[in-house]
Amino acid sequence: MRYFFVFEQIFTPNPEAEKPTPIRPRKGVIIGVGQVGMACAYSLLIQDCFDELILQDVAKEKVEGEVMDLLHGMPFLPPTELKGGTVADEGKDADIVIITAGAAQKPGETRLDLVGKNVNIFRHILEDVVKYCPNSILLIVSNPVDIMTYVTLKITGFSSSRVMGSGTVLDTARLRSLIGKKLNIDSRSVHAYIMGEHGDSEFPVWSMANIGGAKIIPETWDSLSQNDKDELDSLFNQVRNAAYEIIKLKGYTSYAIGLAVTDIVKAIIRSQERILTVSTLINGLYGIQDICLSIPTVVNERGVLKTVNLSLNETEKNQLLNSAKVLQEVYEQLQL
């Protein structure tokens, strides 16, 4: 006697249905499943960014546990094939490889202190990325992100359009959030940028900052009262010191950078032509040569499409050049 499995009775096949033309799934790989990597994974999953997502880490048991935990929540989400693995097996030919692996930033430690540790980690990671994902776009999140973006470019030999760092995308969001909160308006209506290094030499572009087209500084910085200057300086200092403060309070940052990475990924896979302050290679702009730092950049399915030529004032130009100098001093110490 034949026993029919109950699921066979749920569907009636259509005999005229044709075999579809295969559509290549959107595939992403996250290398590093620490707090930042998993915040990225969670945000990417709930915003339906990939058809396949691979998690890779040297801690294989942790990867297994994270995948299992996330899979149990899949009935609440759009379908994504989630696996643990490496770029050498499950992650071959990925569209985007996101690298969050590296030594963690400790209280009192600057992003630039991490350079030596993370360069060695990246050498090992990137060898397989080049071999098994030769056409991917690389999104670097590990700190110090500008340095690690530059290191990735030099080690992989990839086009500068296909290598970018998360840069000051989060710093820019922090600034917009604080301004929005201060003025009691939606932060998405605030148009302001943090440029330069994702670190202590970054700076706000106050001359271009506006809300619904109305400039925050109507004339020049010097035309402001001392109280206004102090208030704007206070806002920026909160942005620049935010990571240090969060690390002191909870040990790491995670949620906001996960959302920032998702915004960058959506700009790529959906070809949104978004302007984002990702870290990208600069050659010639503002007189800067062969340095990765953050300026407003148009991002689409090809990666870094073009940069925005803002009319910076003299103070801002000098701040950008200073940020480039800080990074150049580190580059000169690298052995690549």
Task: Describe the structure concisely for a colleague.
By secondary structure, the protein is an alpha/beta fold.
Low-confidence stretches at least 5 residues in length (pLDDT < 50)?
none
- Tell me about the largest β-sheet: 6 strands, parallel
Number of strands: 16
CATH topology of the largest domain: L-2-Hydroxyisocaproate Dehydrogenase, Chain A, domain 2
Using the coordinates above, name the CATH class of the largest domain: Alpha Beta
Order of helices and strands: EHEHEEHEHEHEEEEEHHHEEEEEH
Which superfamily, in CATH terms, is the homologous superfamily of the largest domain?
Answer: Lactate dehydrogenase/glycoside hydrolase, family 4, C-terminal
Total count of domains: 2
* Span of the ends, CA to CA: 70 Å
Strand content: 15-25%
Please give the count of helices: 9
Instruction: Assign the CATH architecture of the largest domain.
Output: Alpha-Beta Complex
Structural shape = globular
Main location: cytoplasm
Protein name: L-lactate dehydrogenase
Binding site for NAD(+): 32-37, 57, 62, 102-103, 118, 141-143, 166
GO molecular function: L-lactate dehydrogenase (NAD+) activity
In words, what does this structure look like?
This protein has helices at residues 35-46, 60-71, 115-132, 145-156, 169-183, 226-240, 242-250, 255-269, 314-331; strands at 27-31, 52-56, 81-84, 96-99, 137-140, 163-165, 190-191, 194-195, 203-204, 210-211, 214-215, 274-276, 279-283, 289-294, 297-300, 303-307. The protein has a six-stranded parallel beta sheet, with helices on both faces. The protein has a three-stranded antiparallel beta sheet with strand order 7-10-11. It has nine helices and 16 strands. By secondary structure, the protein is an alpha/beta fold. The modification Phosphotyrosine is found at residue 244. NAD(+) binds at residues 32-37, 57, 62, 102-103, 118, 141-143, 166.
